[in-house]
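Exercise 7. Given the components listed, write out the predicted structure of the assembled complex. Treat all entries as one system.
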Amino acid sequence: MKDLLRNALKSADVDYCEIRFEQSEFLSIGYQGKELDRIVRDNPYGGNVRALDRGGWGFSSFNSLEDLKEAVKSACRQARIAGEKQRGESKLASAPIIEDDYTPEYTLDPREVSLDQKISILDNYRDIILGYDPAITAAQITYNEKITELYFANTEGTYIRQEKLDIGSSLGATARRGMLTVSESIGRGSSIGFDCMLGADYELKEACDLAVRLLDAPQVKAGVYTVVCDPALAGLFVHEAFGHLSEADNAYKNPRMAETMKLGRRLGRDILTIYDTGEYPQNRGYLKYDDEGVPTRRAYLVKDGILVGRLHSRETAGIMGEPITGNARALNYTFPPIVRMRNTCIAPGEASLEDMIKDIDLGLYAVGSGGGQTNGEMFNFMARHGFMIRDGKIAELVRDVKLMGNVFTTLENIDMIGNDLKARDGAGGCGKGGQMPLPTSGLCPSIRIQNVIVGGGK
Amino acid sequence: MIGFILPEGVQGELHRRTYRSWGVSFQNSMFEGTSHSRNDLRTVRVIDSGKMSTATSTKPDCEEELVKTALELSKYGTVVDYDFPGRTDYEQIELADPSVAEIDFPEMIEIGEDLVQSLLQIDENIRASASLGAQEMQVNLTNSNGFSGTYVKTAFHVSLGAQYIQGQDFLRFGESRSSWTNDIDYLELKKEVIQLFEWARDVTDIHPGTYPVIFAPGQVGNLLRPFIASLNGKAIARGISPLENKIGESLVDDRITLVDDGTLARQISSAPFDREGIPTRRNILIDRGTPKDILTDLETAKKLGVKPSGNGTENGPAPHRTILVAGDASLKSLIKSIDQGLIVFGTMGAWTGNPYGGNVSGTISLGLKIVGGEIAGRVKNCMFSINSFTHFKDNLIDLTRETKALGNATYPYVALDDVVITTG
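Answer.
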């Protein structure tokens, strides 16, 4: 493969050219209702060529290696058309020239677990869900496992073969009474082992219990509350509220955004430190090299409340004159890499959950990650459920908890950070530029935020 | 005919989708680059001893390998008690325009530059983005029971949007259009985006409370999600749909008629047959306020004892094109009729959450305040909340006669009363 890719690159008559080629084995197992609903094996197979000339990009994807030379020609031709229009300069931050063949150290290689064993484990979870309470009418289980062999070569001499594993899973219960249907679930995920799928019985029973109790829980009352987010929701919060805004493709050709997000400005209190990293192989955002062949590194975004960095591709780093971070990622071979998060984390603080709650007269303890969205300034994120906080104590369960905020006030309003660091993994992923779901995760503690807008009933 | 040999007693199906797409993009008011993609995806499904499994790949000439994989998986497969359809007559629909293949990069770049310039002429501090993309797709479906079908589609997509930053205020706005051919009205697209910017440029405030709210067509899908999800055969078969026992009973205001239609010619959402070979049809999901048809595939139709509705996909039943039948009001008159309220063009997170409970809420990312029947500026930092089941029953003000064709839906503006607005 090395010779094939390097030979193909020889014909690239542009400023820069790269080839990615992948062959993946994807297994998806789903249960909906009472039975196994879906079992699919997929073998995505294909590659792409990306070329840069005078600041303009060309991209061409293909399925057969026989079409590689034609794809190089097509991407270079496109880049020259784009470069002719731009009449600019190709500015890629310099990156080390790498030659590597990398396979993760698996804790439990899913290929060593037979399909019989996997089905048996998932059947057990299905039985736990359906046997928990008659009010539970359906199990919803998703297990996705993808093993990718990814080749990368560029005209600068880098050649990498890396193997990647992504396991994402959700185990959920749906309960119904009359017109009211509610659900609750837990997530699992890993980049190094199937063992993430083991030992979920206790947590799953807790989720089933919550699903049943949610049938009697009221919708949260709309208002403005002090909100304590558990680690999973804090992970979603930092991803939506700040992670996307720190992606440098927002700012690299946008002077007003660059000014608003000028490094050195204060965004939060001294207790707040946020970073994004390719570390933590137990989580879905683990990455050794990004899709430009750049080694990933921990990128501090906020340190002690001050904006200190952002997430970069080689182009955004080159244009902004900032260090590369290894954040250029593509969903698969049909897409070019764009700036994306990996594991986005909040550094732990010292507060216990009890500390955070004890002085709140009326507030909300929001639990679990249920999806979110941002437009840069404002964001929306959903908890799986919540508990009202009354007179410093956890009170009644509430459902349909959606929260919103404005990044510039909400980060300032984080006034306590917990000591209970946990990861947020599950079956979903991040979406941007039509590339979804990309595996991301994060390690976060509980956080307390003042004045959060909560949607809900009257 | 199916192209591979199966063991005796095993049913097989081969689905092949090949496409070519190409496009250009502009970001931050600048031309960014071009792209060209080809993909050839084959999927084999087998039913062996009443169990179904699926294997899929983009590897060239992979059919035999897929059959082998699917057969290996089948002992774990989904228990099914239906057969793949046999020879079926279906009507061809006009879905492809050969002239789409002639749209080349220079033409796309020229249109994109014009779109971007139209916004910069309004305010040079706008950071405009635009994308244009064309696609040709061919679908082939054959099975061992005699079904054989093929169709070709073309599509052309254009989007124009922008970001306008003033300090810590980020205004994002935009519109997109899709068509089966290159007949997009760029002038109208530009006018609409510029109008949004002019309406939204100035920020105003709103107090928390309940208000009449007009939802623009692009937001109506979020409001209808509880109905569409609950009238899906899979939700009914799984016992999680709250509308399971409401078919034929009056549910919402009788001005609501919601249709799914996969048979419309010259629509990118149409197809002569679904993913399983069942001819598409027009399904009346809600007929003047009363739930009527449900969306089914082979599996759910069998379970529910009904005929499949032609809505089979890789992931269960799904609509082709949802159409909310228009009303009589004009948008202008609807705005005029509101003393204090909102018109919402953009939301975030309204698609999250459990659709079966009916509650829909989200952050208003582009909402305009209406005061005394006039647009009075953009509101920020607020959320809306409704329950679709009750609001479409008790709080429907009106539907406009103006509709907008979105990618896979056609909706009017919908005005609802008593919408909860929460703000900080």
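Discussion: Chain B touches chain A through 80 residues (CB under 8 Å). Chain B has a mean pLDDT of 96.
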